[in-house]
Design goal:
The complex is a heterotrimer of chains A (911), B (162) and C (430).
Chain A (H helix, E strand, L loop, with lengths): L1 E5 L2 E5 L5 H7 L23 E5 L8 E4 L10 E3 L3 H15 L16 H9 L22 E3 L9 H9 L6 E3 L6 E3 L14 H4 L5 E3 H5 L8 E2 L2 E2 L8 E7 L2 E7 L12 H5 L13 E4 L5 E4 L1 H12 L4 E4 L6 H11 L4 E2 L4 H16 L3 E2 L10 E5 L3 H4 L1 H10 L2 H9 L7 H8 L6 E5 L11 E4 L2 H15 L11 H13 L3 E6 L5 H16 L5 E5 L5 H7 L5 H9 L5 E5 L9 H9 L3 E6 L4 H4 L3 E4 L8 E4 L4 E5 L12 H11 L10 H11 L23 E2 L8 H4 L18 E2 L46 E2 L8 H5 L14 E5 L13 H6 L4 E4 L1 H7 L6 E4 L3 E7 L7 E5 L16 E4 L15
Parallel strand pairs in A: 1-5, 16-17, 16-24, 18-23, 19-20, 19-22, 20-21, 22-23, 24-25, 25-26, 29-30, 32-36, 33-35
Antiparallel strand pairs in A: 1-2, 3-4, 3-5, 6-9, 7-8, 10-12, 11-12, 12-13, 14-15, 14-26, 27-28, 28-31, 33-36, 34-35, 34-37
Helix pairs in contact in A: 2-3, 8-22, 9-22, 9-23, 10-17, 10-18, 13-14, 15-16, 15-17, 19-20
Chain B lengths: L11 H12 L8 H12 L4 H11 L3 H8 L13 E6 L2 H5 L2 H12 L12 E6 L11 E3 L2 E3 L7 H6 L3
Parallel strand pairs in B: 1-2
Antiparallel strand pairs in B: 1-3, 3-4
Helix pairs in contact in B: 1-2, 2-3, 3-4
Chain C lengths: L9 H6 L5 H6 L4 H9 L2 H11 L11 H6 L13 E6 L8 H8 L1 H15 L3 E6 L4 H16 L15 E6 L9 H8 L23 E5 H21 L7 E7 L6 E6 L4 H8 L9 E5 L8 E2 L9 H6 L8 E6 L4 H15 L5 H18 L7 H13 L8 H15 L1 H10 L7
Helix pairs in contact in C: 3-7, 3-10, 4-7, 4-10, 6-7, 6-8, 7-10, 13-14, 13-16, 14-15, 15-16
The chains are: A alpha/beta (911), B alpha+beta (162), C alpha/beta (430).
The structure holds flavin mononucleotide, iron/sulfur cluster and FE2/S2 (inorganic) cluster.
């Protein structure tokens, strides 16, 4: 700590931090542009000027950029000094010379950091009389709009895109007062984290294109704290709604889960909420197979009737909330409930859970991955399956540069200095996967191998670290030796794996490595990715039936009816077999958000609310239960799935299930399951009120107001909808003080209308939120000794060279079911592909870009990948037009001369 | 992904010269400027195709290389004439009448700054101080520094360049 | 002054042009390097240069020996690579001294760099050369080749066990490349944006390794210090500074040119004696003492000695020591416009005051010069000058340097600016 006098008042600041960050951590106002909490300082905008005094007698002092000053004990500075204030005002005047003053039509308007800083510094009248420079804008793909004239040349975009996110195709061009930020020529910005540019850019150069297309004033957006349904990371988000449709998704800061950034699946995938494929009305299938609409009451009656008739199975879902899953499980009984994942994947989820519960290594958070000093990735292509993890992992390799900088006396916040000094030095990073990944550029060593060989390498690494762990035959000795050496040198090594490559052995191997390291006294972390937003929650809830069992019961007549919750069984196992089993049921009740193939087979289909229209809990990859709140009221008869189930239960006379509130369901869920006991602590319940006894407003204080809302029709004040389910109100009254961090519906602070205001909600910049933790970790096991763990996974896989084998691949754009219905994501999706090593393709007569016929999975495009593991045929799963599960048996493919590519590949940036 | 055959865009000699630079530098990307200057010495300018080929050869993105190219005054990303005429417009030459000299040269060549003569012979550009201020005004045609430029002698000066 | 007391270019006159290896060796060439490499420790060489009080000739006048001493040596060094870089970018308008050295006496630079490399323990050296310097390139490359053939460069130089390789990097042209950290980025093949300090180059420079950057003329001063010693060198200077200096004059004088004179020679002597005085019909109104980025000096300063301290005390900088004269036919407003056009053009575009402030200044000057000046324009110029000018206001010293001539012109020639605005025309164009 350092005692620093700021304008006559003493503060305790963190020594060695940059002064700007330290000042903001005290929640003081000091304008800035180019500094970013996640990216450090470069000193280019010159806005954060303060006066620094040499000593107590110094009266003039010296102008300094706060972001470039190291905090030291005994410093005396002034923010208010006339010269500093005047200089800051001048900086804005310079920046506004060329700024277009197009605020009325600018998407950033009202939420613009440049606007805020202009007002804050007091620059009000324009004196520059010369012509303004203009630029040509570029087409940057479906996600990002480009309006270069608004640029103030803070360099944040390139620093973020290149240095932070590892992108290559956005650059700074030119020099002097004609700096251009964009691509070399028009084209899709490839990096899957490009969307953060929207929030990183302090003005309106990089804009959210889907939002711009149906623009609404940002202060009129209604929002609530939410959680991304896109993958198992569970990034915290702020979806914004207006007039019943989801307009955009912004980042909601979480110190451990997602920090300041989202991936593009999360940011642009939310538009599935507005999709025409939404199921919006209840319907029952008549004799002719056509759905007939039902009102909500009638539909509820029908469900109640099904429940009262015979043996009813429940099929849950890892993409539905814990509450909805629990409601269904309670309704049908443990013995009749399946979590809705196929047996293979369910086993992997359980394995993941048991690895965590074994307590051999710390369960790492995503953000914590940034501080790992050595990383081993086994099997999982996180950039495609849990993208935000990849962004965090990308930062981990900077720890070596940071250490080198510390040795050289370079302040760690000195971004360019740290990078320049370290040159290409990186912390050790190793990746073993069947196919190349977009973080391979970080790796000191990569191993391209089939899952069983990846596992073998993992086992051998664990054995190399600690001989008590099982050895494996046939592992790549060079890779193993390198990884063993690097991990053994590390202090905070991190092992990353997941379920997406479909191999239990890979998971076991990852556990062994982490445990072996822990046994060596390392602070080892484990980061395991599940497949879906609530995969771990569903696994923790558990169900006695596998999905296959449930279908078998239906097929064999051992059950009469089934209720399927937010789950397209075609994405889980052989769709035709599923349809046959369902056809045997007397009633198939499907509750879903979208009209899926499974919903087509329903006898009764019920429209379920999306995550943005309901309140519930997801448990993320690290076992963190997180609450998402209803952002807006669903339209028509759309209702949260648990609500449909609860109403049906009440109608059916199930007095044990008389739930009125989602909180009631959560409470019941916690009561019934000791593992899930923490769920009730996830976030405050509906009764919560802020310090002033008020609800928390979903709309900002600046909202145009209720009377203005429908002013194009009539000026009147509609009665705000009463919200029984949450502590929020559908209004702008009340105080968004951020007293409870889990309930921050938007960030705003006087003078700070942009997302930069988040620092006012943090205890210190980039630190925890003031209002406590967001979410609770449900799994915090006692540590176990290594010797106990060394015996747990003894059986490494045996090497099996049985010709070409299928391996599952995923793509950030398209493999996830919900976001695949978001138009901008559709535009970026590669479509179904089979990926092969050129040698394997040659042997089969397959050619890049042409079609391959696949037994049991139709035809799809062939992509040749020189860096693919030989002997592996990767199928990109989950694409709307392709295979959802791997075909059974060995990989059999043949050329398909009739194949027509879905569309020209040039519109797709593969990254 | 299969890479398009970009390297043949560069001549063997260009590649050899670029590789020679790389051999003396800690990493290949450090040869970015040298490589572009080499290609420009051979071809007069750096076309998009050349740029991609160089980027590929050095293992960097085209964007990255173009970002560097667009920073420097002497890397031409548009075609130029056979001889680039660069007239000093900095202060010492200014004091010695560079402004009126430039007007004379423009009239002589029939082109303005940034333009190329119709016959492709000359491209006219401004240049900052050429380091011969005691012999102002100065200009450079191709590699040749011309000192004490006499506006009355332009015929003779330009006549030497075909 | 005998040529022996003109260690930089006396020999050029004696030889009558280019000093090739033979001529150079015949005039004690490489004796300094031999002495350093075979008879002294690196620490002794640094101490000698320090004691000689050699100050950097690139413009800032930083003590060279002191700079060299910042490079980690012995225990403090990690044993890795170190680099020695010569700044031969010379793009400061009005400056033409390094070109002369490179073109006519290139072995002097090579020898200076060998000694410097030995002192700091650098195995690799680079000369960062202006792209437009074609003839200097040819001469320097030949000198390097010849020196290598003769064993002055390469492995085990002069049997000392010391290895040093020297290469030329030809720049692609930007004034900012002369700023030493921007130069390092350019050398690394990147955009030449200046770097933040710390780290300072002696700790972490080219490719993240300890690096020393010195000007061409600075290195050229070193061999004779080795040969003749500290006292001899200090005695060359007239005032507080040591050694000789290349002084140049451009503008309306009878004999514009470049001379090696004792450092501290008075301005008036340089102009009247060496440059032959003003041409008939022209009167000297002001001058920029050391390149475009120095403040105007006027009549009252013309008797001052050209040394670092004296010129600084007069409110300007000695800079590169090559002065640009403004005679009475030149409009100060227009001359400032010319200068600020240059600096605005050459801004790297990284920081706001320079990137946005200088074009505004240029715009204001253009408006005033072309008769569109407004009453408040001078205050706007003052304000811009004030805020662009402070050394910590901008990221590097380009912008503060850029504003020096304007700020001083607003002081010394204010009535010219006012008249433009008052009359709506330039009196010099009347
Ligand atoms: C904008 C700018 C341009 C410069 N240009 C040159 C240059 O062309 N040549 C030079 O030697 N120094 C130049 N310098 C000074 C260098 O940064 C550096 O101080 C010098 O090369 C150090 O050498 P010295 O200590 O031998 O003088 C420039 C500085 C600035 C701020
Ligand atoms: S002052 Fe700023 S913009 Fe100007 S050259 Fe230096 S860093 Fe670049
Ligand atoms: S925030 Fe400090 S200079 Fe930009």
């Amino acid at each position: 700590m350092a005692r620093v006098n700021i304008d006559g008042k003493d503060y305790e600041l963190t020594a060695g931090q940059n002064l700007l960050q330290a000042v903001l951590s005290e929640h003081l106002d000091l304008p800035y542009f180019c500094w970013h909490p996640a990216m450090g300082s470069v000193g280019s905008c010159r806005l954060c000027a303060v006066i620094q005094f040499a000593d107590a007698d110094d009266e003039r002092g010296r102008l300094q950029m706060a972001c470039m000053v190291n905090v030291q004990d005994g410093m005396r500075i002034s923010i208010d000094a006339d010269f500093a204030a005047d200089f800051r005002k001048q900086v804005i005047e310079w920046l506004m010379e060329n700024h277009p003053h197009d605020c009325p039509v600018c998407e950033e308007g009202g939420e613009c950091h440049l606007q805020d800083m202009t007002v804050m510094t007091g620059h009000t009248s324009r004196r520059y009389g010369g012509p303004k420079r203009t630029f040509r804008n570029q087409y940057l793909g479906p996600f990002i709009g480009h309006e270069m004239n608004r640029c103030i040349t803070c360099y944040r975009c390139v620093r973020y895109y290149q240095d932070y996110a590892g992108g290559r195709d956005l650059q700074a061009f030119g020099s002097r007062s004609r700096m251009f930020f964009g691509r070399e020529s028009d084209g899709v910005l490839e990096n899957e984290f490009a969307g953060n540019l929207v929030e990183v850019c302090p003005t309106g150069v990089f804009t959210d294109k889907p939002f711009s297309e149906t623009y609404t004033r940002k202060w009129d957006l209604q929002s609530a704290p939410s959680v991304c349904p896109g993958c198992a990371v569970g990034c915290n988000t702020l979806p914004g709604e207006r007039y019943g449709s989801l307009k955009r998704v912004h980042n909601r800061y979480h110190p451990d889960v997602n920090g300041y950034f989202l991936c593009d699946r999360g940011r642009f995938g939310g538009h599935f909420v507005n999709s025409p494929a939404r199921l919006r009305q209840a319907g029952a299938k008549a004799g002719d197979g056509v759905f007939e609409g039902l009102d909500a009451a009638a539909a509820t009656e029908r469900v109640a009737a099904v429940l009262g008739r015979g043996r009813v199975l429940g099929i849950g879902s890892p993409r539905a909330s814990l509450e909805s899953n629990f409601a269904l499980k309670a309704l049908v009984g443990d013995e009749n409930f399946s979590t809705g994942v196929a047996a293979g994947e369910a086993a992997l989820d359980q394995l993941m859970l048991s690895i965590y519960q074994a307590g051999g290594a710390r369960i790492a958070t995503t953000v914590e991955a940034e501080s790992a000093d050595a990383v081993l990735v086994l099997g999982e292509d996180v950039a495609n399956t849990a993208p935000r993890m990849a962004l965090a992992l990308r930062q981990s390799v900077n720890n070596k540069p940071l250490d080198m900088a510390a040795d050289a006396g370079i302040p760690l916040w000195q971004d360019a200095g740290v990078r320049g000094h370290a040159q290409h030095a990186k912390s050790p990073f190793f990746i073993a996967t069947p196919a190349p990944t977009r973080i391979d550029d970080l790796a000191a060593g990569t191993l391209r191998a089939a899952p069983q060989d990846v596992a073998a390498a993992g086992f051998a690494i664990a054995h190399g670290i600690d001989g008590r762990f099982a050895q494996a035959e046939g592992a790549d000795a060079g890779f193993v030796a390198q990884a063993v050496a690097a991990l053994s040198e590390a202090e905070r090594p991190l092992i990353v794996s997941g379920t997406a490559c479909g191999s239990a052995a890979v998971l076991q191997a990852a556990a062994n490595v982490a445990w072996a390291l822990q046994g060596q006294g390392k602070d080892a972390g484990l980061l395991l990715a599940g497949r879906e937003a609530n995969s771990l929650g569903a696994a923790m809830l558990g169900g006695e039936l596998t999905l296959e069992d449930a279908l078998k019961r239906l097929a064999e007549g051992a059950a009469d009816s089934v209720v399927i919750l937010e789950n397209d069984l075609h994405r889980r196992l052989d769709g035709e077999a599923a349809d046959r089993a369902l056809a045997n049921a007397a009633d198939v009740v499907v509750l879903d958000v979208l009209e899926t193939a499974t919903a087509e087979t329903a006898t009764l289909a019920l429209p379920a609310a999306s995550y943005a229209e309901s309140t519930g809990t997801f448990v993320n990859h690290e076992g963190r239960a997180q609450r998402f709140y209803q952002v807006f009221e669903p339209q028509q008869d759309v209702a949260p799935a648990w609500r449909w189930l609860a109403n049906a239960a009440i109608t059916a006379g199930r007095n044990d299930l008389r739930w009125q509130h989602v909180d009631d369901v959560a409470r019941a869920c916690a009561d019934g399951n000791p593992h899930l006991e923490g769920v009730v602590r996830t976030a405050p319940d509906a009764a919560h009120r802020n310090g002033a006894g008020q609800r928390i407003p979903r709309m900002t204080h600046r909202a145009s107001g209720r009377t203005a809302m429908d002013a194009h029709i009539s000026v009147h004040e509609p009665k705000p909808t009463v919200d029984e389910q949450t502590p929020f109100s559908y209004s702008m009254e009340g105080q968004n003080g951020g007293e409870v961090a889990a309930l921050i519906p938007y960030v705003w602070s006087p003078g700070w209308n942009s997302n930069q205001s988040v620092f006012k909600f943090q205890q210190e910049v980039a630190g925890p939120l003031q209002g406590g933790d967001v979410g609770v970790r449900l799994i915090e096991p006692e540590p176990s000794p290594a010797e106990a763990l060394a015996t747990k996974y003894r059986e490494p896989p045996t090497f099996d060279s049985a010709g070409l084998q299928w391996v599952p691949l995923h793509h950030v754009f398209g493999s996830d079911e919900l976001s695949a219905h978001s138009p901008p994501i559709v535009e970026r999706s590669t479509g179904a592909e089979v990926v092969l090593h050129p040698d394997d393709a040659d042997a089969l007569g397959l050619v890049d870009g042409q079609g391959a016929r696949i037994a049991g999975a139709g035809s799809m495009a062939v992509r040749l990948e020189p860096d693919m593991a030989k002997g592996c045929a990767g199928i990109v799963l989950g694409m709307l037009d392709g295979a959802q599960v791997l075909p059974a048996g060995g990989a059999e493919l043949s050329p398909d001369p009739d194949f027509k590519p879905r569309r020209a590949p040039e519109v797709i940036a593969r990254g | 992904m299969s890479e398009p055959a970009l390297i043949p865009v560069l001549s063997d000699e260009e590649v050899r010269e670029i590789e020679a630079e790389c051999a003396h530098l800690p990493d290949r990307k450090s040869a970015a400027i040298d490589a572009m200057m080499i290609v420009q010495r051979h071809r007069g300018w750096v076309s998009d195709e050349s740029l991609s080929a160089i980027a590929h050869l050095l293992g960097m993105s085209v964007e990255n290389l173009d970002s560097i190219a667009t920073f420097y005054n002497l890397i031409f990303r548009k075609p130029v004439g056979r001889h680039v005429v660069m007239v000093c417009d900095s202060v010492s030459c200014y004091v010695m009448g560079a402004d009126s000299l430039l007007k004379r040269i423009e009239a002589h060549l029939g082109i303005g700054l940034g333009q190329t003569t119709a016959d492709g012979r000359f491209t006219l550009l401004p240049i900052v101080c050429l380091g011969a201020c005691d012999k102002a005004p100065t200009m450079m045609i191709g590699d040749e520094l011309i000192e004490n430029v006499d506006a009355e002698q332009l015929d003779g000066i330009f006549g030497r360049f075909e | 002054m005998a040529s022996g007391e003109r260690p930089l270019i006396g020999i050029v006159e004696e030889v009558g042009g280019l000093v090739d290896l033979g001529a150079y060796e015949a005039h004690e060439g490489y004796a300094g390097a031999r002495q350093a490499l075979t008879g002294m420790t690196p620490a002794e060489v640094i101490a000698l240069v320090k004691d000689a009080n050699l100050r950097g000739r690139g413009g800032a006048g930083f003590p060279t020996g002191l700079k060299w001493s910042f490079v980690p040596q012995g225990e403090a060094s990690d044993g890795g690579l170190k680099y020695l870089v010569c700044n031969g970018d010379e793009m400061e308008p009005g400056t033409f001294k390094d070109r002369y050295l490179l073109e006519y006496n290139p072995h002097l630079l090579v020898e200076g760099m060998i000694i410097g490399a030995y002192a700091i323990g650098a195995a690799q050296g680079y000369v960062f050369l202006r792209g437009e310097y074609h003839e200097p390139y040819r001469q320097l490359q030949k000198a390097i080749d010849d020196a290598k053939a003769r064993g002055y460069l390469g492995q085990n130089i002069l049997g000392s066990g010391f290895d040093f390789d020297l290469r030329i990097h030809r720049s692609a042209g930007r004034y900012i490349c002369g700023e030493e950290t921007a130069l390092l980025n350019a050398l690394e093949g990147k955009r030449a944006q200046p770097r933040t300090k710390p780290p300072f180059p002696p700790a972490s420079g080219a490719w993240g390794r300890p690096t020393i950057v010195n000007n061409v003329e600075t290195f050229c001063n070193v061999p004779s210090i080795l040969r003749n010693g500290v006292e001899w060198y200090q005695d060359l200077g007239l005032g507080d500074d040591a050694g000789t200096k290349l002084y140049g004059v451009s503008g309306r004088v009878n004999k514009p040119g470049l001379w090696e004179l004792p450092i501290g020679t008075p301005i008036r002597e340089i102009i009247d004696v060496h440059a032959g005085g003003m041409q008939d019909g022209y009167k000297l109104r002001g001058l920029l003492p050391g390149g475009a980025s120095t403040d105007f000096l006027v009549e009252q300063h013309f008797d001052l000695a050209m040394d670092y301290g004296t010129i600084q005390a007069a409110g300007s900088r000695m800079g590169t020591g090559t002065m640009i004269l403004m005679d009475d036919s030149i409009c100060p407003v227009d001359m400032c416009r010319n200068l600020e056009h240059f600096f605005a053009q050459e801004s790297c575009g990284f920081c706001t005051p320079c990137r946005e402030g200088l074009p505004w200044v240029e715009q204001l000057l253009t408006d005033i010069e072309e008769g569109r000046g407004q009453p408040g324009d001078l205050e706007l110029l003052d304000r811009n000058a004030q805020f662009i000018g402070g050394v910590t206001n901008t990221f590097c010293l380009h912008a503060p340097g850029a504003i020096e001539p304007l700020a001083s012109a607003l002081k010394h020639f204010r009535e010219d600016f006012e008249e433009h605005i008052r009359t709506g025309e330039c009196p010099y164009r009347r």
